[in-house]
Write a structure and sequence with these properties.
This protein has an eight-stranded antiparallel β-sheet with strand order 3-2-4-1-10-9-11-14, covered by helices on one side. The protein contains 19 helices and 24 strands. It is an alpha/beta fold and about 600 residues long. It folds into three domains: about 240 residues, 4-Layer Sandwich (Glutamine Phosphoribosylpyrophosphate, subunit 1, domain 1); about 200 residues, Rossmann fold (3-Layer(aba) Sandwich), CATH 3.40.50.10490; about 150 residues, Rossmann fold (3-Layer(aba) Sandwich). Strand 18, helix 12 and strand 19 form a beta-alpha-beta unit. The longest helix is centred in the last third of the chain and has 21 residues. The protein is globular and about 75 Å long. It binds 5-amino-5-deoxy-1-O-phosphono-D-mannitol. The site of 5-amino-5-deoxy-1-O-phosphono-D-mannitol has 16 residues, from helix 9 and helix 17.
Length: about 600
């Protein structure tokens, strides 16, 4: 949700900022802009639409200098337009700011500032902050910003450039991520690590309620009240290459293909040497707590919420602990019922999703223990949770989540098996069979990728479909929901997922000749029931693409085409079944000429409520 880059050093600031913004475009791409300071003048260039438009503008009017800030926007307050694009300025042109988040009291502030004679040029909440800085400015930018922070409510990552202070940028963080990249005689500010990886791997991760004064030869950190704080340097272990496309036409396709490795990395160190026990040494809770947990609430959004649905089924089945799965944006407003020993699990690829983070804070405020499953070390959820399981998927850049989902599932399988092992809720041999099958999932994922040509062909044929339905029962239903979301998100084809048995209660009315139905039939105990539901849609002339285990010769009698999945335990089917659905969404989006990695209206990381 908006990407920020700031630079101070000896390089041409335009190059650093543009390169950084390109890496952050996944956070928003409604407009982009840059402000640089050169010869005591702040020069601003901004443009509606993708970065390329800004780059074109800068060919004729380059942004000169060696200090500056840039922004790529995902619109919240004010439609996407040149005027609403960041950076924003005050009336005097003394300050320029970029912002990620929402200033909740901006209307009140705007009224107050307008009454004092300030003139506004945009509809954004952000511009209010620029005028507020002007209003409160006392000649000392640092103390002014401490004062500004007292006046604004809401979420913000802010970076300020001032023509009176050519030797510094000031960065503030409250509820929106911000990191400081530490270089040699140069320093960086960014919303996320990929923006600065080319230059340094040493970063300060600003905590909530912190600010930094960033100079060419040093960075000082403070609380928003202005008290100095000590920060440890965090060393980024992944390299710039893993954040590049590496020969694939899109990040999404690359990330789909990275799943065998991501699954392997997430399993590494978490299975005993003989592969028959789960070892979750990162969990800091006691043995007695493992046994005492009597309820679990999973809180997440979007794809991570879909992972939670699979987690519920697996934890309940293996560990016999009741689990509820909650949508982040609903959870904290519904006064959830909890026991003393309710464990709250938050799942978030980015670790910065505002709704999920709010759920985490709600749970903590109620005195609950929180376990985070996240892909980003040092993210907000990782830092605020009591315990963390990191999914080692590596950076996920495409807006559509793929490898993050499968690795979240791995984390949930491991957790379910861990609870079962420690609470002795399963026959030891049965559990060992499941754990060793988990260890084989990288190979399973590898084999499923071989379905790509078949899926590509299917996507070509059905790219013009107006509606698609995904059906399945039990675990297949959860995976169907993820398949439908993926298809909607990037191909813009309307898609719905239904519990196969539920279709006849209304939705069957939408099934007409040729409507594509993707039917998952991987759960043996529900196989016959699912086949009956498939026959119901076939009887209405739907085109059915079935999904079943290799060796199943029955299903092809009831459907038009079958995708065969390599053998694994039915409990682990979601890992195998989701990959063809990701490929389907991908190839449908490509066939329709869509921008796969940056679908319209969306952003990778949603850091506003
Ligand atoms: O970073 P998070 O896992 O918290 O993100 C949650 C959702 O915004 C995310 O999964 C979203 O639904 C994906 N773009 C779907 O592909």
């Amino acid at each position: 949700m908006c990407g920020i880059v700031g630079y101070i050093g000896a390089r041409k600031v335009q190059d650093v900022v543009l390169e950084g913004l390109r890496k952050l475009e996944y956070r928003g791409y409604d407009s982009a802009g840059i402000a640089t300071l050169d010869h005591k003048t702040i020069r601003i260039s901004k443009s509606l639409g993708r970065m390329a438009n800004l780059e074109d503008k800068l060919v004729t009017e380059p942004a000169t200098g060696t200090i500056g800030i840039g922004h790529t926007r995902w619109a919240t307050h004010g439609r996407p337009s040149d005027e609403n694009a960041h950076p924003h300025q005050d009336c005097s042109g003394r300050f320029a700011i970029v912002h990620n988040g929402i200033v909740e009291n901006y209307l009140t502030l705007r009224d107050e500032l307008t009454a004092k004679g300030h003139q506004f040029e945009s509809e954004t909440d952000t511009e209010v902050v620029a005028h507020l800085i002007e209003d409160l400015y006392n000649g000392d930018l640092f103390s002014t910003m401490v004062n500004v922070a007292k006046h604004i409510r809401g979420a913000y990552a802010l970076v300020v450039l001032s023509k009176d202070h050519p030797d510094m940028l000031i960065a503030l963080r409250k509820s929106s991520p911000l990191i400081i990249g530490l270089g040699e005689h140069e320093n960086f500010v960014a919303s996320d690590i990929p923006a600065i990886l080319e230059y340094t791997r040493d970063v300060y991760v600003l905590d909530d309620g912190e600010m930094a004064v960033v100079r060419q030869n040093g960075v000082e950190c403070f609380s928003l009240e202005g008290t100095p704080v000590h920060k440890d340097v965090y060393q980024v272990t992944w390299d710039a290459v893993s954040a590049e496309r590496g020969g694939y036409p899109h990040f999404m396709l690359k990330e789909i293909h990275e799943q065998p490795k991501a699954i392997r990395d997430t399993l590494t160190g978490r299975l005993s040497e003989d592969g028959r026990r789960v070892v979750l040494s990162e969990l800091t809770w006691s043995k007695s707590y493992t046994k005492a947990v009597d309820r679990i609430q999973i809180v997440a959004c979007g794809t991570s919420w879909h992972a939670g649905l699979v987690g519920k089924a697996v934890i309940e089945k293996l560990a016999r602990i009741p689990v509820e799965v909650e949508i982040g944006s609903e959870y904290r407003y519904r006064d959830p019922i909890q026991t003393e020993n309710t464990l709250v699990i938050v799942i978030s690829q980015s670790g910065e999703t505002a709704d999920t983070l709010a759920g985490l804070r709600e749970a903590k405020a109620r005195g609950r223990r929180v376990l985070a499953i996240t892909n980003v070390v040092g993210s907000s959820v990782a830092r605020e949770a009591d315990d963390v399981i990191i999914t080692w998927a590596g950076p996920e850049i495409a807006v559509a989540s793929t490898k993050a989902y499968t690795t979240q599932l791995i984390a949930l399988y491991l957790l379910a098996a861990y609870f079962a092992q420690e609470r002795e809720t399963q026959e030891p041999d049965k559990l060992k069979e499941i754990i060793s099958a988990l260890g084989n999932l990288p190979q399973v994922a590898e084999q499923v990728l071989d379905t790509a040509p078949q899926i590509e062909e299917f996507a070509q044929t059905y790219k013009g479909a107006a509606d698609t339905f995904f059906i399945g029962r039990s675990l297949d239903y959860s995976v169907a929901m993820e398949g439908a979301l993926k298809l909607k998100e990037i191909s813009y084809i309307h898609a719905e997922a239904y519990a196969a048995g539920e279709l006849k209660h209304g939705t069957l009315a939408l099934i007409t000749e040729g409507v594509p139905v993707i039917a998952l039939a991987t759960q043996p105990e529900l196989y016959e029931k699912t086949v009956s539901n498939i026959k119901e849609v076939k009887a209405r002339d739907a085109f059915v693409l079935g999904m079943a285990w290799v060796g199943d010769e029955e299903l092809e009698k009831s459907v038009d085409e079958v995708i065969y999945l390599p053998a694994t335990l039915p409990l682990l089917a979601p890992i195998a079944a989701v990959i063809p659905l990701q490929l389907l969404a991908y190839y449908a989006a490509v066939a329709r000429g869509n921008d796969v990695d940056k679908p319209r209206n969306l952003a990778k990381s949603v850091t506003v409520e």
